[in-house]
Write a structure and sequence with these properties.
heterodimer; A: about 500 residues; mainly alpha; MetI-like fold; 3 domains; 21 helices; about 0% strand; globular; B: mainly alpha; 2 domains; 13 helices
Chain lengths: ~500, ~280
């Protein structure tokens, strides 16, 4: 291979500029990458291989992986990770709604500003005066009023930029400091959240006790019926897609499995075993019927098995989460009479110290940070790129705001949504470490241990570096497969 | 007739905007309340921290000074460590990234695109995979529990290179030719022409890197062993686990560690928002 002098020169020059960076890249990224892949197939353990004790390192083949897959904890932590990821759609919906609210031009003519300004200044001055006068217990009300006044003043004067700044703060500052803050907020006995909930729940408890138990049972059952309705509607939509050749066999089966998952899980909870079984049975029967009907009708259509997989999974996934929400509501409604009958009245949840509330608590905290996140900014940018004449055309056709959203905004934002979903799923699979380490230590009883925290405890607390590498690579494989899947099937859905 | 109509429209719009403002304000209130509680609690005397009333009956700004003097903590030192380490990382990372970005965007050398593709590919990998071998390397090099061990791995970033390359590609290449005709070498081109022109990109990367390093948790957590070398996140974690019942002081510490970020964000948000919307995602 004989290169011209000029070519050699350009290579040398290019590498010279690259050198400081690529040295670091090679030693702290590429080398560790290869090293960790090798590590994953060894029994490297800091308790066996350290300066005091030098046992021979053994090449372990797929031992780490087979052990991982047979370990019950691994599946539990995978489940925890998936559970926490169910908060993602809520966060995305929240940031989309916020972005839509913010995308309006909120600054107006001068007259309008003065009206707000006078009201707000009066509010703030009054609050300040009362605070200085030492207004004691009413202080809280005044504080809230003062805050509302301040934010409103900022918003009317500065328009959406002020709100945007405010909304973005929880996300921007998210880290150990804010997690410690939330740990204090969630304290079941002394935290402000339960301090605020306690009186509310006391009065709610008396309302519950005054309500005939039949009503609550009715609500609980209504939620289950709602679940069934969701399943049936979704199955109808799926079978229509099948009939029209928009969804292949694989898509329908996987989508149906997602739809039935909540009902199947419900059967594991003793109090609802009958209801859950009935539901699962009904839904199962419906699936079989729908599939049979579709097969009979579909003969003339031919489409690939995985046709429309992205659509089917996204649609069914969101409905699955809605079903879980209904299921949770139903269980709470069923449990309410017993809770209200407690001699101390109704007590607020124990949040991060309770096995059942720890994950929802972390999801609520995540939602707090997710509303005004990067996603909101991306949606804002996306919204400003939607051609205005599409809205005008829709208005001329007499479309309602909802119709305008579903027919113009949502399809136009599809690429942004796709990007956000991909990034959120990647982040979600690897997430949860910081919360687990600062707030719960992965507990109670492993309820908040995610896969990334599992890697940490195995690798850095126990010292099993080989095993931890195995977990990390398994996690990577998972991320890779999900992302590949998203690209393969989601991209098509976006471009359609 | 026309006048009447426009008055109606005005009232309608006023009400419409009013509704929007009220909704946004309430949302903003909900999001900001945790911070308000944090701030108010940091001024409380210890015996009031668990009370339902958020407002202190006695205001103690002295809590902030007390955090620095609390026995068993070295808060001032941690503050300094965090800022020092974040500054070093930021300087090194922006410098090496801009050099590499220059090489990837302005110089034409054989194999350039393949190497760049390799960079891009590693951006997809979870950082977690690299942590374990890097830790092993740090043990071998004796760099565990040292600043060098914290700064060095964080000073090279594929992401920063990618971001700056995107910025540099928007600068017209006719400038390069003009510089060459004037007899400027590649270094002059980089230093005198390209760098000043991609200032917004440099600022964006500076903020990202600084905040990322200031907030970084996993790596310092496994690397740092001695108290006086802790960074703020590790220090706060230690504070919470050793003296967490002193909620007022803890909240003062949390406030002080969040405050620089709020200032950075409010002052420089123009660059940040632009950087994020370019497809660059924090962390």
């Amino acid at each position: 291979m004989s290169w011209s002098r000029a070519k050699k020169r350009s290579l040398a020059l290019g590498l010279a500029f690259l050198a400081p960076n690529i040295l670091g890249f090679l030693s702290f990224t590429l080398f560790p990458l290869v090293f960790s892949l090798i590590l994953a197939f060894t029994n490297w353990d800091l308790r066996l291989h350290n300066i005091f004790r030098q046992e021979t390192l053994r090449f372990a083949g797929f031992e780490n992986f087979s052990r991982l897959l047979t370990e019950r904890d691994f599946w539990k932590y995978l489940g925890n990770t998936a559970f926490l990821m169910m908060g993602i759609p809520f966060g995305i919906a929240g940031s989309l709604i916020t972005a839509i609210l913010l995308s309006r031009d909120l600054r107006g003519g001068s007259r309008r500003i003065w009206v707000y300004l006078v009201a707000v200044v009066l509010l703030v001055l009054g609050t300040g005066a009362l605070l200085l006068a030492g207004a004691g217990a009413t202080g809280m009300t005044i504080l809230i009023a003062g805050l509302v006044g301040l934010i409103l003043m900022g918003g009317t004067l500065g328009g959406s930029t002020v709100y945007r700044t405010l909304f973005y703060l929880p996300h921007f500052t998210a880290g150990v400091a804010t997690f410690i803050l939330w740990k204090k907020l969630y304290n079941p006995h002394t935290g402000p959240i339960n301090n605020a909930l306690r009186p509310l729940l006391q009065s709610f408890g008396s309302v519950i006790q005054a309500t005939p138990p039949g009503v609550l049972r009715g609500i609980a059952w209504a939620c289950l019926v709602g679940m069934a309705m969701l399943v049936l509607t979704a199955l109808r939509r799926l079978s229509r897609a099948w009939r029209d050749g928009e969804a292949g066999r694989l898509s329908v089966v996987l989508g149906g499995a997602l739809l039935l998952a909540p009902a199947a899980l419900a059967t594991r909870w003793a109090p609802w075993s009958e209801g859950g079984l009935a539901l699962a049975g009904a839904a199962g029967a419906m699936t079989v019927l729908a599939l049979a009907a579709a097969i009979v009708r579909k003969r003339e259509f031919r489409c690939r098995h995985d046709e429309g997989l992205g659509f089917a999974l996204m649609f069914c996934g969101v409905l699955m989460i809605a079903q879980f929400a209904l299921l949770g509501l139903s269980r709470v409604a069923a449990a309410l009479p017993a809770m209200a009958a407690n001699p101390d009245g109704m007590t607020p949840p124990e949040w991060i110290t309770s096995y059942y509330w720890a994950k929802p608590a972390i999801m609520i905290m995540g939602f707090w940070g997710a509303i005004g996140s990067n996603n909101m900014l991306l949606y804002l940018a996306g919204l400003s790129n939607v051609p205005q004449d599409l809205y005008e055309a829709a208005s001329i056709d007499g479309a309602s705001p909802m119709q305008r959203f579903w027919n113009v905004t949502w399809p136009q934002l599809a690429p942004v949504t796709f990007f956000i979903v991909v990034m959120s799923v990647i982040g979600g699979l690897q997430g949860g470490f910081e919360m687990a380490r600062t707030m719960t230590q992965g507990g109670p009883a492993g309820a908040t241990t995610t896969l990334s925290y599992f890697v940490y405890t195995q690798g850095f607390e126990t010292g099993r570096l080989g095993y931890a590498s195995g977990i990390a690579w398994t996690l990577f494989l998972l991320v890779f497969l999900v992302t590949l899947f998203n690209w393969k099937f989601g991209n098509k859905y976006v471009n359609d | 007739m026309r006048h009447q109509h426009s008055a109606g429209v005005f009232v309608h719009r006023l009400a419409g905007a009013g509704v929007f403002h009220v909704v946004l304000t309430l949302l903003g209130l909900a999001l900001v309340l945790p911070f308000v509680w944090m701030l108010l609690t940091s001024f409380k005397p210890l015996e009031e921290v668990n009370l339902e009333n958020w407002i202190p009956t006695r205001w103690l700004p002295g809590n902030y000074a007390e955090v620095f003097e609390t026995k068993g903590l070295q808060f001032g030192r941690w503050y300094w460590n965090s800022i020092f380490i974040a500054s070093c990382v930021t300087f090194l990372q922006v410098f090496t990234s801009s050099l590499a970005a220059f090489s990837f965007s302005r110089l034409n050398w054989p194999g350039r695109n393949k190497v760049f593709l390799l960079y891009l590919a590693t951006m997809m990998l979870p950082g977690l995979v690299m942590m374990i071998p890097n830790y092993q390397v740090m043990i071998e090099l004796g760099l565990v529990d040292s600043y060098v061990g914290l700064v060095l791995p964080a000073s090279f970033s594929a992401f920063g290179t990618f971001l700056l390359r995107q910025f540099m590609l928007t600068i017209p290449s006719s400038l390069d030719e003009a510089a060459e005709i004037d007899g400027a070498g590649k270094w002059r081109l980089y230093w005198d022409i390209i760098l000043p022109l991609c200032r917004p990109g440099l600022i964006t990367l500076t903020i990202f890197t600084f905040i990322g390093s200031y907030q970084s948790f996993f790596w310092p957590l496994v690397m740092l062993k001695s108290l006086h070398r802790y960074t703020l996140p590790i220090g706060l974690l230690f504070f919470d686990s050793s003296q967490g019942q002193q909620t007022n002081l803890l909240m003062a510490a949390v406030t002080m560690s969040v405050a620089p970020m709020i200032v950075v964000f409010v002052v420089l948000q123009k660059y940040l928002v632009k950087g994020i919307q370019l497809g660059a995602v924090k962390g």
